[in-house]
Design goal:
12% of the residues lie in helices and 32% in strands.
């Protein structure tokens, strides 16, 4: 499983490869908003990411904000975005992850 930990919401770079105006997490965000914030763009190991079937988007407290599938990646300069499908309504959303994110990096592989 791939896990992406989001920090607090902030403005996205003006040249954000996914056209987002903000990135990060905030209280009360929807699963769709968490998916869009969390699926990219990251410095990640493309081979490791593609070997995963699933991604969890979590906040700094380890609460699952969204779960999705990993179907591929797209390159955005020296970074990548995940391509896949949001698993809307996954029962893990809103609960603490069972695989706490121990890395200082935003992207973890479990």
């Amino acid at each position: 499983m791939l896990q992406i930990q989001l920090g607090p919401e902030r403005p996205a770079d003006p040249d954000d490869g996914l056209g987002r105006s903000t990135v990060g997490s905030r209280p009360g965000m929807s699963e769709q908003e968490a998916w869009e914030a969390g699926r990219g763009v990251w410095k990640l190991n493309a081979d490791h990411a593609l070997a995963q079937d699933e991604v969890q988007i979590v906040d700094l407290e380890g609460i699952v904000l969204a779960v999705g599938t990993v179907k591929g990646i797209s390159k955005h300069r020296d970074r990548y975005a995940l391509e896949g499908e949001l698993l809307l309504g996954d029962p893990r959303v809103g609960k603490p992850t069972t695989t706490p994110h121990r890395s200082r990096n935003s992207v973890g592989y479990f």
